[in-house]
Specification:
- 2 copies of one chain form a homodimer.
- By secondary structure, chain A is α/β, with parallel strands linked by helices.
- Chain A has 2 domains: 269 residues, TIM Barrel (Alpha-Beta Barrel), CATH 3.20.20; 305 residues, 2,3-Dihydroxybiphenyl 1,2-Dioxygenase, domain 1 (Roll).
- Helix content of chain A is 32%, strand content 25%.
- Chain A has 17 helices and 25 strands.
- In chain A, strands 17, 18, 19, 20, 21, 22, 23, 24 and 25 form a 9-stranded mixed beta sheet that branches.
- In chain A, helix 1 runs parallel beside helix 3, helix 3 crosses helix 4 and helix 9 packs across helix 10.
- Chain A starts with a strand and ends with a helix.
- Chains A and B meet through helix 2, helix 4, helix 15 and helix 17 of A and helix 2, helix 4, helix 15 and helix 17 of B.
């Protein structure tokens, strides 16, 4: 289907927005009137630029306050509309978005609204313009698409049809199923937006917090399926007002936006039972293949890994890269081309069934491919770059031979650490929503409900991306903007069956565990009523503890090395969390 | 009265918070339990540190989920409470905040809640602890202070009293007048917080958006007056959860917080008819005395002022400072100690009745005094520094002789510009609320309702500080965080009686007015139906136009010089705005 985007979704000038939309691969745009008004290009110049860029101008929007009004206001509205029809003719746009009246309506009557739209339709016909009438969620009287459809039916005019907007329908909790009863030729336009579950007035929610499909809490695949079942064949168009996207790089946001639309169309087709979706089908990853830390000198990380019982597995036969392992945990230490001199998380390898399919899907979703220097004899690894710059490798299966390229180390992997439990990735605040979509669409992970943790320098938003069964868990943390020098938020959590034993042995090898204050243990005992013996043991070993209805969580932290630290985790029963209640204690200790 | 602050209001470690509170001048603090839990200091060490800093520990908070519960949960609650009483004894805190149950309550009965608080009171008595029971706005059953008071009355226990929190009462719209009927000895604690008018769930509103008194929309002076009339003599304590304050410099936030409390106590005393408030009484400023622009080379600004018809009034007899005037508008161009090489707004002089009183009030409210190099023979000017670094001078009256220190220019001031209409100050986002309080408390300006304007790189929040009658208007603009290189947001708006004539003459002198696109005039004509003749004239002169029910606004802009630009304004009738609808057009033009 044709894909379109409203210029209000993007930052910068109208010209910059058009270039970005075309470069990303959109077929068309909605012209947001204030963007046109502020532009130095004439309508004819914009039309010519769009033609050169291969963009259609799909919609002129918005036109307000035209129905449900007194005759005097309506006459003035006709005058306003005619001036806009002239502009639309100059632009070559044939559809205008007409919003239900939220400002000046005084007449609560479908018949009056229909008559006024019919008369506007007569005027529009003279300019070859179609009117797509949309029920705003905060319309004075018309705030439900079933009512706007009734008005359009009553208007019974060839130039008068509907605009459907997922936000206006789903934010109000209206059932979209009745869309299927609307004749396709009367659905003139479709606008798509997601949004987080927020309890606030719908106008502020809409103006500031809309998200691209797949990033919020609306079931957009089901919504789109209803519209497609109605027979709609017009453009799928994004209209997302969002404070963050307005500020970020326009080219990046355009790619991000198109990715959401590709994902949505694929999901909707699958929801409709179309086996061949738009995108290559993949299964979620089944585990961590490796985690890579880069630095100019990875020596300090090797010291800690040795203390944690990891074995040096070998040095790469052609590159300054070392591999350390314990159980299934493989840590790659890379001294090549580090973007920062200090140790930092640079890549995560995930085990997938079909690495070629995963890479193909990544390319279809415009995930930047990662190109690392390889040698003919080496195992080729497919990889994409996540929004925060972390490289995600597709491993497992046919590529598992990469480990054999490391030579000279011990073959033993008998440490107490059994594998990687989760990897925390710090996200710049402006890329957080993009990251959520990236991990759900490109990697088929599920986004869990977000939480907020109070750190010493501001709230840390956290949302976990995980595979079914939680073999892969990637908590994404958003660090407060001013907290660049605060506690590190990226870390590798290693799982074991006895964290107390790991800490004891690591200490014997010289590891400095992150100290936990006595006050924490006083509170733990008060809160959870753990017995004095357990409390003493945990306190002595600087181990934190959490418990929920399903099980228990024991964990300890290393000191931060550069920008990264390690967590040792023991899970008992079905505990599925990450000890979030203890995070403020950890961050305060790291800040000291 | 004693002044206190909850540690949750401040960023950093508990030790850093205590130092900052003491340095600002607070008498005491509320110990927020998570801050204690995360601290490496023992309760005894914290007690000793507080004693050394001269801080009392006024409250231990919060204790949750203790009333309205089953007997089993209540027994576990007593165990939890006793452990906390032990900690409180070690800290030397004698009052605990007990929140109404928002989590585990299953019994909706004042009698049961009272009986449980009574039993907890018996236990507390053994530790010398008092319980201050607070109705949370989102309490499961107890969400109104009148109900928590009923429960406290029923409990009828010397250790059980009330905690009143302005947020929990005013956010629900509850009438605080009944507070006056509560016996003073039963009001154990008072927490104060303001908040903006937001329509969202009260828990999120409370957790993220509280403000210090004077910054939001609650009538806190009236609220405090009710509490004082009840006879309350305990501490006035701030409890403000706010995403921004958690991130900003702790010392700065503590001063800002204390300023709000001093202002509030002063306002409350005046509301109670106490003529001698806490602070020196002042009248709002009556006009602009001057505006200062600093730069290494102010020459380019002088060129523009000359084009606008300003006259060079003279050079300061002892400093590299020039004065240009037109009508009542005085622009000081200063080449001393510029914090930036490029032209920028550095100071605003305001006319006040009593400059000594204004300076005294500034000092009482801990506004940083400005010290400029002066010479014995010069007129001394009192000044304070605003949160964004702008220096605010108190002029007029006895100090008006400063103009006579400028020599060698023309005496003529017969330009078409008549005075300064308003001065827009760009605010870093993290200091915006502090700035609102600064201008209302230190300068006695009124904060108008805020607006948001869509700029090409994000939304710009704007709020106008103005004097009665609007002789002084200071719009504060918050620039989006990433928009450091975007359009300038600080400018000087000059008023005249005929903006068309000013632009014509300025152009004849070579001024390049900011160009306004033709699309703007097309839209203007469509929107407002102005006649073709006026449209042609405005378009030819690049003048923008707005209209409201009270009058009209004509304005034009100069190009930006360094970080500052000028606006020429003509107001007709009672138009009181700033042409906000045109701001996106202006910003887009500046971005080009």
């Amino acid at each position: 289907m044709r894909r379109s985007i409203a210029t209000v979704c993007l930052s910068g000038s109208l010209v910059a927005k058009m270039h970005a939309a075309a470069a990303a691969g959109f077929d068309g745009i909605e012209v947001f009137e204030p963007d046109l008004v502020a532009s130095e290009l004439s309508p004819e110049e914009i039309r010519a630029l769009a033609a050169r860029l291969g963009l259609s101008l799909d919609l002129y929007q918005p036109f307000r306050d035209i129905e449900g009004v007194t005759d005097e206001l309506f006459r003035d509205g006709l005058r306003r509309a005619e001036a806009k029809f002239v502009v639309m003719n100059r632009l070559g746009v044939d559809t205008m978005l007409v919003c239900s009246n939220a400002g000046t309506a005084t007449i609560d009557s479908d018949e009056v609204s229909a008559a006024q739209l019919r008369e506007l339709g007569d005027l529009a016909a003279r300019y070859g313009v179609r009117l797509a009438f949309e029920a705003l969620a905060w319309g004075r009287y018309v705030d439900d698409y079933r009512r706007s459809w009734n008005i359009v039916e009553l208007a019974d005019h060839p130039q008068v049809g509907l605009c459907l907007d997922s936000f206006h329908i789903l934010s109000r909790g209206h059932d979209p199923a009745a869309i299927e009863q609307i004749p396709a030729e009367k659905i003139f336009f479709l606008q798509l937006a997601d949004a987080p579950a927020l309890s606030m007035d719908v106008l502020s929610w809409s103006r500031h917090h809309r998200l691209f499909p797949g990033e919020g809490s609306f079931d957009l695949p089901a919504f789109l399926a209803h519209v497609l079942r109605a027979g709609y064949t017009g453009p799928l168009s994004l209209e997302v007002f969002n404070d963050t996207f307005r500020q970020t790089d326009v080219g990046r946001t355009a790619v991000h936006a198109l990715r959401s639309l590709l994902w949505l169309e694929d999901q909707a087709r699958r929801a409709m039972g179309d086996a061949g979706g738009l995108l290559t089908d993949i299964e979620p990853p089944t585990g961590f293949d490796f985690v890579e830390v880069k630095a100019e000198d990875t020596g300090p990380v090797e010291v800690v890994l040795g203390q944690l019982g990891f074995a040096f597995r070998g040095r790469h036969r052609s590159k300054p890269v070392n591999l350390w392992t314990s159980g299934d945990a493989r840590i790659v230490l890379n001294e090549q081309q580090a973007r920062d001199a200090l140790p930092h998380l640079s890549a995560v390898g995930l085990r997938v069934d079909d690495d070629a399919a995963a890479a193909r899907r990544g390319a279809e979703l415009m995930a930047p491919a990662v190109h690392r220097r390889t040698y003919a004899s080496e195992v080729p690894l497919e990889a994409v770059e996540a929004p925060d710059g972390t490289e995600i490798f597709f491993g497992g299966g046919s590529t598992s031979g990469w480990v054999e390229e490391f030579r000279g180390g011990s073959g033993a992997s008998g440490g107490l650490v059994l594998g990687v439990d989760h990897v925390n990735l710090a996200q710049p605040w402006q890329y957080f929503d993009e990251a959520v979509l990236f991990y759900t669409s490109v990697l088929a992970l599920d986004a869990q409900t977000g939480v907020e943790v109070a750190g010493p320098r501001g709230l840390v938003r956290s949302r976990v991306m995980s595979s079914p069964g939680s073999a892969v868990r990637l908590p994404l943390n958003v660090v407060p903007p001013v907290d660049e020098h605060g506690p590190a938020s990226q870390h590798i959590a290693l799982v074991c069956s006895d964290v107390r034993q790991v800490v004891r042995e690591a200490r014997a090898r010289g590891l400095a565990v992150l100290p936990v204050p006595t006050n924490y243990y006083d509170d733990l005992q008060a809160r959870l009523g753990i017995d004095a013996e357990l409390r003493r043991e945990l306190e002595q070993l600087d181990i934190l503890y959490d418990r929920d209805a399903d099980g228990e969580y024991f964990n300890a932290y290393t000191q931060t090395i550069g920008h990264v630290f390690f967590e040792i985790v023991e899970r008992r029963g079905g505990y599925g969390g990450y000890g979030a209640t203890n995070a403020p204690v950890r961050m305060a200790a790291q800040q000291r």
